[in-house]
């Protein structure tokens, strides 16, 4: 049985029902779907996404990132994207996992095992695909195998997770290059990441571009160009997406009405909230929330 078959067997065993579940291994989330899913807006934290079986498409703006067991995906910063499982059947369900990327560990590894990386002239992107590296897959398999021996998780999971980060940091290819940029405190990518962290914490308040550019340590024009290259959105578009996704969650998960959800996330005008909501999700807020509660899509995306 090869690496992917063994990984599929482990995920199938520990994720018997469709949905999303935290694993007993810190930083690991498991996913399963027995059929293709509707495109759903989500926010990716810095993460490594590995598929054992099936195929997924992630849209960043107008760019599609399609990956399967032959490729993995890395998100370098908190990314507002739209994701959908595009290949899955009851006999061969979509099975995948995500590993949160510990930026402190990445920085520490970069200091101990420096790999010279000239920052590209053009702005970095926030997502990258990499060919499935046998060394990375082998480490992922060993990490997931710890679910069968939970007594070993505390001792061994941190060591294997560090090995995965090391492989991502020192490998070759665009994906690995992006990971090295993530590990450099003064890289443009990290400067944009600081601005995104601020936006996520303050999305429901006032937002002056000059202030956010100062947080990133860039001029307004440079910040705008790099932010859009990383996220495929302007800072204000990014903030709007964060607001609308949180409003959607409040209506579905906490049964809040549309007016209350819009006000909670920073909208002063209910009509503006409704217009923006329809533009993003295709339905008025209340109608969309009712459909999502019935389907369970928001919880299973």
From TrEMBL:
Q: Does the keyword Transcription regulation apply?
A: yes
- Which Gene3D superfamilies does the record cross-reference, listed alphabetically? Homeodomain-like
- One short Pfam family name for this protein? AraC_N
From which residue to which does the signal peptide run? none
Provide the HTH araC/xylS-type domain boundaries. Answer: 193-291
GO MF annotations for this entry?
DNA-binding transcription factor activity; sequence-specific DNA binding
Any idea what this protein is called? Transcriptional regulator, AraC family
| Keywords attached to this entry | Transcription, Transcription regulation
